[in-house]
Amino acid sequence: MAQQIEKVGVLGAGLMGHGIAQVAAQSGYEVVLREVDDATLQKGIGRIEKQLARAVEKGKSSQEDADAVRGRIHGTVDYGELASCDLVIEAITESLPLKLEMWRELDGIVKPEAVFATNTSSLSVIDQAAATGRPERFVGLHYFNPAQVMKLVEVVRCVTTSDEAFETALQFARSEGKLAIPTKDKAGFIVNRLLVPYMLDAIRAFEEGVGSAGEIDEAMKAGAGHPMGPLTLADFVGLDTLGSICDVLFEEFRERRFAQPPTLRKMLSAGWFGRKSGIGFYDYSGETPSENTGI
Ligand code: CAA
């Protein structure tokens, strides 16, 4: 039987965390959103407020509903405010040491019956679960960017996850109107295992001169019906995030399809992380993105 969830803690108000917090608040949950400092927290909350205002402008939400959603989100920089959460979802940097440090601290603060969930895109769930005193109440809840729009949540069961915690996570994702797909704790789960080699292959095709970035992207949009071409998508996900996911997958499977192509490695050294840094396969400094001719 699933546990009752009323209050949700979200760790990290970045690209994924702010969206995860917004979706939970829109689904009626009380949300405690935690960031490391006030400036980063306000940036994340600002993004949520912008989305809520846009929904009101478009007539998709009433001002009253938008205010109620915003009112359910409580920002903090203090772990202590997560003590009474029923579910805590982490969406911090994709670094195992950082995640372990955070869980160890939270484990002593958050009530023992609460379920912990990681939004990791590639790290093993069991490695995080085992660092807590509640490995049976630990799952993966993997959202997709933008979390407000993308329908899927991969619900990951690791070897220690109890039936009750897994059912709680499945029902929670469904209660948010998401399509909850259960999957095993195997690096990359379902989507990234398939999507990451696809984006890397697009980078290799670009390296080999099969087409320009724009030609590759337009071809996949018009020829395969994808909403975004693979290089636009790589910029959208973040080339740094893509780089760390493929490093984890390569480490796990030792297969060339998961290896960073030299172009990606060089772009990361240059600090070209895609949309978030203003430049990647495209340059985002103008009105509309233009191809980065410096690659
Ligand atoms: N936050 C909230 N809402 C957003 C948004 C955001 N960041 N971006 C777009 N939207 C909303 C828009 O407001 C709009 O809503 P309405 O229909 O209510 O007006 C709707 O989404 C469509 O947006 P647009 O018309 O601006 O643009 P679009 O039709 O091109 O859609 C897109 C944008 C949804 C991002 C679409 O291009 C898309 O689906 N792209 C692929 C995204 C994808 O593959 N994501 C997965 C990445 S992999 C991942 O996340 C996993 C990982 O671990 C790395």
Structural class: alpha/beta
Which small compounds were modeled alongside the protein? acetoacetyl-coenzyme A
H/E element sequence? EHEHHEEHEHEEHEHHHHHEE
Q: Helical residue percent? A: 40-55%
**CATH topology (fold) name of the largest domain:** Rossmann fold
Largest pleated sheet: 8 strands, mixed
Could you tell me the mean pLDDT? Answer: 97
What is the C-level CATH assignment of the largest domain?
Alpha Beta
Rg (CA only): 19 Å
List its traits.
two-stranded antiparallel ribbon, alpha/beta, 11 helices, N-(1-d-carboxylethyl)-l-norvaline Dehydrogenase, domain 2, Rossmann fold
Structural summary, described in words:
44% of the residues lie in helices and 15% in strands. It contains eleven helices and ten strands. Strand 4, helix 4 (96-107) and strand 5 form a beta-alpha-beta unit. Helix 1 crosses helix 2. The mean pLDDT is 97. The structure holds acetoacetyl-coenzyme A. Acetoacetyl-coenzyme A binds next to helix 2, helix 7 and helix 9.
